[in-house]
Request: fold
Amino acid sequence: MVRIFGPGAPVGVHYRTAPGAFDARDRGRYNPRPSGMTSRPIDAEVKMTFRIAVLLSGLALAITLVGAATGPHDWKAPDKDWAKGPVRWIMSDEEEKEFKKLRTDEERAAFATAFWEKRDPTPGTANNEYRLIFWQRVEGADRAYKDIIREGSLTDLGRVFILLGPPMSMRKDSRYTYWAYEPSEVSGITESMEFSFAPVDTGVLLRSPKVLESYVAAHPETRGIGWRLPQIVPEPAGEVAAAPVKEHVEDTSPESQRQIPILDAVAAKGSGPTDVPFQVVEDYYAAADGTTLTVITIEVPREAAHGSGSQALLAFGRLQAGGEAGKVMNLTGDLPFVPAPESGVPPGSLVYQARRNLKPGTYTRTIVLEDKVVKGQMGSLVAAISVPDFSARTFAISSLTLLASFGRQDADLGPDEGASGGLYSMGSFRLVPRAAPTLQQTDTLAFYYQVYNPTPEQATGKPNLESTYSFFLKDATGWKPFRKPAVKPVGQVELYEIDLKTLLRPDQPLPVDFRMEAKVTDKVSGQSLSRELFFTVR
Reply:
């Protein structure tokens, strides 16, 4: 399936979408020995094989050390090695021959400009959506598929991911890893295909490259030629904003019984161990039954997992309504907080998420993050949260959600997902939020929100909404306006991404703290509402 991000939907694009499946109020809610050979030559053969293996390992180590010393190559810059980077997967043979003839950086820059213009689905606009998606896929592949000698985007896994997007499904057996793709109007894939990858000394190897090459040759859109922005088909329902409702069921497993006393102790004290650092954010959306969908996202520094990945940590928690006598909702069990896909999280982080439908009001939220590698180590956070009420049919907007990545809702479904949505899923989109609002200057600022109950125009029966995005920079004297506000029409579902390189001034000192205000105005009723995001760029 062609995914719209690397893990995402077209980046740098303002989405003015009609309601998705999750948005309508009336919806319910991965050499045999030659004959005659004596034992003596076999001994020699074994020794030679071992020596070759040692030499190969030494070569891989040398390459790794050289890479560490020089740092990763900037493949976005069209230098003399540009065609050796990830763009080689989308270059035609003719383009590669033409590029090799170039001798100056100026010639290469002109070539790159024409190369991307040929792959621009919206010529004449400020953004080239395909190029932005391509580089986001490259970044996702570099995070998820790096082997001991190559960046992830240059591996066979990275090649398939960049050309076709993430698979519809993944499976493994004792020998191989399999990626399956199925035809889809959303992804643009037109054939059923399965690719198998075999483990080798330095990573994994695509076992059927000819199948991939034949498909790509017959479908130039996989290389950006003739690629089109995916179109979101409007739903017949006219209202946005009813999240599916999922009933909370208390887990009674032995693992829950082990976790509950830990939560009792932390909640009673109001604090607990801090061995494992993490941050938590809650986002709130309207639900179909008048409750509020509360999405709890945890972000943890990757080093806290001791190099073992998301399985090295276990998050569990509790929500208690009102005061000490309020109803308790335990988020416990074998996997109460589900990790996000590795390709969709910030490079230095792990992300976990749980979600529940809550009645509006105040709650005490207790989270414990347990280290499963170092026994007895854990982190904990206790805080009061206020769950907003979206049940009244008045003009309102959801949380303004800061995103690490985004894509299509039907791509790479998580274990709690299905036709009605689930973890890391919101309406037509798949969203991985950030809990730690720290971005690198090479990142993009992506955010999502929903608008509820705008007044429709009499002539069209449709709302007329406008958003103003204002940025403020913090200095020694406080918050100062930064650049001119951006004003644009929006729909009731807004997904937007801004390249930080275009936001920051060329001479901008780092780190720097920003505040972004999103002001949504209903131009029919004249009402306005605002939400804010705070983030740091390093």
